[in-house]
Design goal:
17 helices, 5-stranded parallel beta sheet, 5 strands, 7% strand, 430 residues, DNA Cyclobutane Dipyrimidine Photolyase, subunit A, domain 3, Serine Threonine Protein Phosphatase 5, Tetratricopeptide repeat, 3 domains, alpha/beta, Rossmann fold
Length: 430
């Protein structure tokens, strides 16, 4: 039997259930990744759906995935093209009997998958919930409708009742598993971008890929031991070590949440167990929560009224968007964060909350425009976390308090010496 692993946001060989089960079930296993042209088109708002920063990180991740799979004697085919055209052809050529993939449930991904299923109905499909810390089959809800709308209730219930599953590892296939067919990984230029170098002041000076994710875990946990102070520093703005920065590898699946969790457990045994180490798990739980909210509410994530279906007066002002996007608003703190994003593809969590609140609450602009811009620019874009957080900040999501950030007060608290603002607003000083 021949199995095809369709990689999407699970670009790793460790703790990948699609790959693990494909290897267990089949004599021959092939991997495939399709760079869907739709993800590089211009949106209704006038910017690319995926900009150069995440595109570069993705290509780096695919390069490492191919190398790591090759060490296990598994070939990875990479194409720039529509999955619904490419995958049926590959299945026919290689006599594939089963497709294995990570389970997706948001509309764009589901539409593509359904089209492929219709084109090759005789094939078997096996999909796996592989994005979670706590597996959906293990959580204590009769249905997604029973999922709490407040994070704290969700967190306490899962911490009390659910255990994190162990990670899974694959064994090498025989050398005969490799196929002669080869497809070159596209370049940035192939995707419509110019090659570029990372900005010298970026807080995210990292490359994509599973090996790079493991390298970062080693550095942040074991070499610098910054995990020991994570909660104290996580609201920082400057430098690479104020937070773990693992979100980008989590977003495209170069590392799993479970891998990080079990590494934290080791750290707590060997170094220290404190509030800071727990807080990294706490953030993984927030990530889980937004995915569960997405499972519960479906397309409401992308609707103006959000999951609350709450009506506000929203504007779509092109001039306001240009000011916000380019960092030319009256608020220096907002501007510095937006310029950082524009130049590096990165923004701190503290910055994201502030610029989102300013856009949606202060200027009363359509929050979906802001969310779409983040989707375009952020290296660590994740559909569930991005839209979940934007709804939260816009007052149409899971924030029971419906807060608005005091931008000046936030700047005083988190950039009291103005160093962050000066770095991006007066770069000649640095």
């Amino acid at each position: 039997m021949n199995g095809l692993v369709w990689f999407r946001n699970d670009l790793r060989i460790t703790d990948n259930n699609s790959l693990y089960n494909a290897c267990a079930d089949n004599e021959r296993v092939i991997g495939i990744y399709c760079l869907d042209p739709r993800y590089f088109e211009t949106t209704i708002y006038g910017f690319k759906k995926t900009e150069k920063f995440r595109a570069k990180f993705l290509l780096e991740s695919l390069t490492e995935l191919r190398e790591n799979l090759a060490e296990k004697n598994i070939s990875l085919l990479v194409y720039y093209g529509y999955p619904e055209k490419i995958i049926p052809a590959v299945c026919a050529e290689h006599q594939i009997s089963t497709i294995y993939s990570q389970k997706e449930w948001t509309s764009e991904e589901v539409a593509v998958e359904n089209e492929i299923r219709e084109l090759i109905p005789v094939l078997n499909w096996k999909t796996y919930y592989d994005q979670f810390l706590f597996h959906p089959d293990d959580v204590p809800f009769e249905s997604w409708e029973k999922l709490p709308e407040v994070f704290t209730e969700f967190r306490k219930l899962l911490e009390k009742k659910v255990r994190v599953r162990p990670t899974v590892f694959i064994h090498p296939k025989p050398d005969t598993n490799k196929i002669e067919e080869f497809s070159a990984i596209p370049t940035l230029e192939d995707l419509g971008f110019e090659a570029f170098e990372q900005h010298s002041k970026t807080a995210f000076p990292f490359n994509g890929g599973e090996n790079q994710a493991n390298k970062r875990i080693k550095e942040y946990f074991w070499e610098t031991k910054k995990l020991s102070v994570y909660k104290k520093t996580r609201n920082g703005l400057l430098g690479k070590n104020y937070s773990s920065k693992l979100s980008a590898w989590l977003a495209n699946g170069s590392v799993s949440a479970k891998t990080i969790y079990w590494e934290v457990q080791q750290y707590e045994k060997k170094v220290i167990k404190n509030e800071d180490t727990y807080w990294l798990i706490f953030e993984l739980l927030w990530r889980d929560y937004f995915k569960y909210i997405s499972l519960k509410h479906g397309s409401k994530l992308f609707q103006l009224g959000g999951i609350l279906q709450k009506e506000y007066h929203w504007n779509q002002t092109p001039k306001a968007f240009q000011q916000w996007k380019n960092g030319t608003t009256p608020e220096h703190f907002v501007n510095a964060n937006m310029i950082e994003l524009q130049k590096t593809g990165w923004m701190s969590n503290r910055g994201r909350q502030n610029v989102a609140s300013y856009w949606a609450k202060e200027w009363e602009q359509d929050w979906r425009m802001g969310a779409a811009y983040f989707e375009s620019m952020l290296i660590d874009y994740d559909v569930h976390s991005n839209y979940g957080n934007w709804m939260y900040n816009a007052g149409v999501g899971n924030d029971p308090r419906d807060r608005k950030f005091n931008i000046k007060r936030q700047a005083e608290m988190y950039d009291s010496d103005g160093k962050f603002q000066k770095m991006w607003l007066i770069p000649e000083l640095f």
